[in-house]
Amino acid sequence: MxxxxxxxxxxxxxxxxxxxTLPETATRELVPYVSVQSAxxxxxxxxxxxxxxxxENSVEGGITTTLDxxxxxxxxMIYREVLLSITFALLVRPGTxxxxxxxxxxxxxxxxxVRNWLRANLPDATWESAASxxxxxxxxxxxxxxxxxxxxxxxxxxxxxxxETGIHDAENAQTRFVLxxxxxxxxxxxxxxxxxxxxxxxxxxxxxxxxxLGEFASRGIxxxxxxxxxxxxxxxxxxFCIDAEGHISDRRMAEALMGLKRxxxxxxxxxxxxxxxxxxxxxxxxxxxxxxxxxxxAADWVARCQDGRx
Length: 310
Description:
Number of strands: 15
Number of helices: 9
Distance between the termini: 62 Å
Oligomer: single chain
Structural class: alpha/beta
Shape: elongated
Largest sheet: 6 strands, mixed
């Protein structure tokens, strides 16, 4: 039996479309799950080799359900990311007109991406959240709701028709998806990589966040995502989810992570993996003073000073 990849289902989600862009899916069984949580739990239990889930969109930022699942529970690790351009279609049962639509459904992450269109075209429609956009289409097929915001490609799968297409409030909207598995050795650096971590402060104090960010800034590491998430320990208690440019095998990244490990209550490493937004041959050079060669030269200078050879 082929190894399986779990993904946020049912069939016909943007997640499935993005997953099928990975070449290795040709040799994997793709299994839909009803939620991000259940897909990731399938990995933790050994039921699936990996899970493919949405983690960020360009309109609202981080997908909190996914971030919270990676923050808590048995550790998991990100191995790949995929970017997918997103536009929605309004899917309805055949014969439905726009004036007939009183209830609409989609995944909660879709609402900010169609909010203005909804206000302008269906101001009196009631929004109902679904586990995924494809699940919303299924519920429309069953008669639960009048319309669903989903990919146009889902219409045929659920016997629906696209009443409107090309729906989006923001031009060039994208969603980022990640392939998540059990912890193992990260893939070799490509020269255009990203490292994800979760940080917990030891205590709440003035400049605490600055101290964390300083470990990256002082080494010339650019941050690509910074999002706080409540820890559940009370109001004002947060951890920080961070994506940073670079690979854990880079000297500057390794030293930044060592610095964070010293000053943080806890650091959870979520992986170093190739970036989807840039090719390795298109990546620019490291900021002056932050290349591996310069770090090694500085370390050698310190060693010579210790030996009295400066």
